[in-house]
Amino acid sequence: MASRQVRCNQCGSLLMVSAETRVVECTVCHGMTQIRPSITGAWSEVVYNSFHQFGGRLRSFANTIMPGSGSVNNSNPRGYYGTPQIAYYPPPPQSLRPSYNAYGPKRAVLCGICYHGKDNQLNGTVNDVKNMNIFLVKECGFPRESILILTDDMEERNPQKFPTKYNILKAMRWLIEGSQSGDSLVFQFSGHGCQELDTNGDFDELDERDEAICPVDWEKQGIILDDDINAAIVRPLPYGAKLHAIIDSCNSGTVLDLAYVWSQRDTWDYQYGGPDKDTSGGLAICISGCGDYQSSKEIPVLSGGGGGNAVTGVFTYSFIYTMLNEPAGLSYGGLLSSMRSTIRGMLNNPNASLFNTDFTLAPRQDLQKPQLSSSMEFDVYTARVEL
């Protein structure tokens, strides 16, 4: 009889169940977990076929992931604005120590937030996470049980998987705790980002502004500053371990407070951050959706056959598309160049009216440009991208 592993909805423990099991009692906390059908290989194949078929017309894989998604609100590019009402979220417990266990040398935290019902609602962020999940499992060898997903997907019923500020910080600690030499860690965030004045007196920002990501409850619990992200997943990174942060949000160029930023002049620029922002010997690399003063867009793309539009983050789409379609041994420099070219093609598409956007009216220099930053210098044209 076929069996598979699932997580307990209460404590996160790994449970072995048969394929026919629909409800299981946890042997650790005795909580009851409802079992959902697992993702099938055929479903994944359909998604990746659409990436490989990408050509003169943009083809959507999002319909496969979000069938019957209904109408799409494309009026707002990604940004940080509005004063939407916030739903009630229970206060977090005092401890931020993760209740999850770490599994193996490859681990990932994927976070996608749509901010349902708010003025600045997004539509493609949960798709971004679902596609990244499939990419990491299918193409990069990440075990499913080693990927922790936080979304405000309307179907998510586990309060520990809801992307509140507390849960995101807790997930970051799960990602990094127990890491060692040889580990490959991934942190993905798709959602709103912002800047605010750096007022803590550490003088680590050349422009005197901190970058931040916005959890689903940011209006009550606050944003997550680059200082917090650095403290959670950069500083503890041990020697020999590698972290890739893939951040699809506005104002995200230096959102990990890493020391070096790859400039338009093909050189590493030192971004003063102070010695307390360094890793513990590991290598942290951030590939972000745009510069600190730019916006990351999401865009409805044409469906592959059934008509209608579905939504994805432009940056996340270009990242996965490039990783799948460029030759083996892709370098970081090649990745960045190809992604920027793909994004220019998407936002300057002659059929832009189909996307209900005015991106083509923006000056060329203002178009979204993915950024690369790192905790140390390396040759971006020889170092291979390996997650």
Automatic annotation (TrEMBL):
GO terms for cellular component: cytoplasm. InterPro entries: Metacaspase, Pept_C14_caspase. It holds the Pfam family Peptidase_C14. It comes from the Eukaryota. Residues 106-378 form the Peptidase C14 caspase domain. GO terms for molecular function: cysteine-type endopeptidase activity. GO terms for biological process: proteolysis. Coiled coil: none annotated. PANTHER family: METACASPASE-3, METACASPASE-4. Belongs to the peptidase C14B family. This is Peptidase C14 caspase domain-containing protein. The lineage of its organism: Eukaryota, Viridiplantae, Streptophyta, Embryophyta, Tracheophyta.
